[in-house]
Sequence to fold (240 residues):
Amino acid sequence: MSALFISDLHLSEQAPENTRALLNLLTGPARGVGAIYILGDLFEYWAGDDDGDSPLNREIGAAFAAVAAAGTGIMFVAGNRDFLVGDDFARRAGMTIAPDPMLIELDGRRVLLTHGDMLCTDDQAYQAFRRQVRDPAWQEDFLRRPLAERKLVIEGLRRHSETAKQDKPQEIMDVNASAVEGLLRSHGYPTLIHGHTHRPAHHLHDVDGHVCERWVLSDWRGTATWLLWDGSSFRPYPLS
Fold:
């Protein structure tokens, strides 16, 4: 079965070129693939499903729903920007919300999918924040607040994050090699696909004598980028 993997689109009203690139992908290269896996940060931020009727969110939901209606499975793994995507939006978009990490099988090949932020263990401040906002009780309390208030909080968090990044060494914002190896070991040495770091690459890891592939997906900068499984091998697009 063919499959297409994307992440880190960071869709927003401020980046219409990314929205156009996604719509072109869904009506072009993605047409007819068996499954689409979205590995987080589809949106620049998600304040809650009650914001799903904004023009952008409605357009994106309808575009995915059309693909799903044509027979393509759509799986969504939450990222650090859109972890509040819930069942209501997923139903409207024809998506299934998947766990992180998620182990799948492609034509007999075991493949592990994750957004990737859980692997950045050197950034201890971020990991503490991640544990807080992924807690169901925190999310329930946050989603009870008025939508306008949530958006203000999220905007403040985004500004703080951008400022904090300037003071952090680049290395701690990448994945930790031991964390990668531990994840591969605990899931039986599969191929690993993730995003989050915005450092697209193809790596090989020797873990306990097993050679494991790791594909890092690219973020979007006005151009659609994806990884395709064609039934026998992986191929990144656009072709270099």
User: Anything to note?
Assistant: The helical segments are 16-27, 55-69, 87-93, 124-133, 136-143, 147-166, 177-186.
